[in-house]
Write a structure and sequence with these properties.
It is a single chain. With 379 residues, this protein is of the alpha/beta class. The protein has two domains: 236 residues, 3-Layer(aba) Sandwich (Aspartate Aminotransferase, domain 2); 130 residues, Aspartate Aminotransferase, domain 1 (Alpha-Beta Complex), CATH 3.90.1150.10. The chain has a seven-stranded mixed β-sheet with strand order 1-9-8-5-4-2-3, sandwiched between helices. Strands 7-6-13 form a three-stranded antiparallel β-sheet, with no helix packed on it. α1 packs antiparallel against α8. Bound molecules: pyridoxal-5'-phosphate (PLP). The site of pyridoxal-5'-phosphate has 14 residues, from α3 and α4.
């Protein structure tokens, strides 16, 4: 069966990491800072701090915004559970809002309906690399007085109106987990205004500052100014991030080519729904989310996914809605709005493999398996 995701590594990746090993400077250092500057510039933000995961970057965002007990944070239910966990661990309540049926991204109108006087932040995901409605989200955030922490875990390289998507958020988080557009094995980043990022940086390294402005001048040495964590990125990982980043444009183009092959094969099918970029938006095609018609196949694509596997293709449900998990269905959240679109579309969706370097024969096998399954299962 074809792989669903597969990272790819070049000679430059290996050489870059080997050079760091030889230098002996393997902890957080200059390579990490170089990687931070490259990513911040690419997503349209002033500064960034590298972390050991996207989930850590989310926790860091909540810490630096002072969000915790008594606060609420609005998030899609169709997201990585790490984001929801980070909100819950901060003491704040994750409140789920519904998604747009076209992009599967958080719907600004539903965010407005889900908001309360306790809402401090919104965490919209560019789902699968397709930008959410950035203008609509900005307007709602302003109206309810919330900070936007854009989740760019899937969206490195995505744009709206020619601008990188980070530009439309107050803070942005990224992930460099093995399945992402570029990878450092595990890893993440928080990006935003330099002043906020420098404060966040302290909490990635024990809350220690060597040069905090305003601290006692006579005190020589490190200053422990907060009970920080140790959640930075090593320079070995950052070296990998930098060489992977050098190939970003080629990686994005390769994903787009595979996505176009699927769309060419499925777009005319009466019972398959292909993902489309919205006017003015460019996707990074982290996922290729194919949806099936409920009229033809029923409300749950599970049998369809199994059929694709049986016929030698690869497909998988991506996220399970967080609000349907026991952990986040009770008092851990405030059920603010109906999540009708989330519940319907998540069960009709599947991800197809779209990673750079996927063999042409695998793309063909996936297409054939999907079309044969559709033919055999149509009611
Ligand atoms: C939308 C989204 N946000 C955040 C994360 C968290 O990233 P990490 O796995 O690096 O903690 C992921 C990871 O899969 C994700 O898909």
């Amino acid at each position: 069966m074809p792989f669903l995701f597969r990272p790819s590594f070049s000679r430059e990746d290996r050489d870059g990491m080997a050079a760091v090993l030889e230098s002996g400077m393997v902890a957080t250092g200059q390579k990490s800072h170089e990687f931070e500057r490259a990513i911040a510039a690419t997503i349209g933000m002033e500064a960034a701090v590298a972390t050991n995961s996207g989930t850590s970057a989310m926790s860091l965002a909540l810490d630096v915004l002072g969000i915790g007990t008594g606060d609420e944070v609005i998030t899609p239910s169709l997201t990585c559970i790490g984001v929801v966990n980070a909100i819950a661990r901060s003491g704040a309540i994750p409140v789920f809002a519904d998604i747009d049926p076209l992009t599967l991204c958080l719907d600004p109108a539903s965010v407005r309906d889900a908001a309360s006087t306790k809402t401090r932040a919104i965490v919209p995901v560019h789902y699968g690399g397709h930008p959410y409605d950035t203008a609509g989200m900005r307007a709602v955030a302003r109206e309810i007085g919330a900070t936007i922490v854009g989740d760019l875990a899937h969206a490195l390289g995505a744009t709206v109106g020619g601008e990188p998507v980070g530009r439309f958020a107050d803070l942005s988080l990224l992930s460099f987990h093995a399945t992402k557009i570029i990878t450092t094995g595990e890893g993440g980043m928080l990006a935003g205004p330099a002043e906020i990022i420098e404060r966040a940086r302290l909490d990635t390294r024990h809350g220690v500052s060597d040069d905090l402005p305003g601290s006692e001048a006579e005190f020589a040495g490190s200053r422990w100014i907060s009970p920080g964590l140790k959640i930075g990125m090593s320079d070995i990982q950052a070296a990998l991030g930098l060489t992977q980043f050098a190939g970003l444009e080629a990686r994005l183009a390769a994903r787009r080519r595979v996505a176009e092959s699927y769309t060419a094969a499925f777009a005319e099918h009466p019972h398959l729904v292909t993902p489309a970029e919205q006017p003015g938006s460019l996707s990074s095609w982290h996922f290729y989310t194919l949806r099936v018609s409920a009229d033809a196949f029923g409300p749950d694509a599970a049998a369809f996914i199994a059929g694709v596997h049986q016929r030698g293709g690869a497909a998988a449900r991506q996220f399970y809605p967080a609000h349907l998990m026991p952990l986040f269905s009770g008092d851990a959240t405030r059920a603010a709005v109906p999540l009708t679109v989330t519940e319907r579309e998540s069960f009709l969706s599947m991800s197809l493999p779209v990673y750079p370097g996927i063999p042409e024969a695998d793309v063909r096998a996936v297409i054939d398996a999907v079309l044969q399954t559709a033919e055999s299962l149509t009611r």
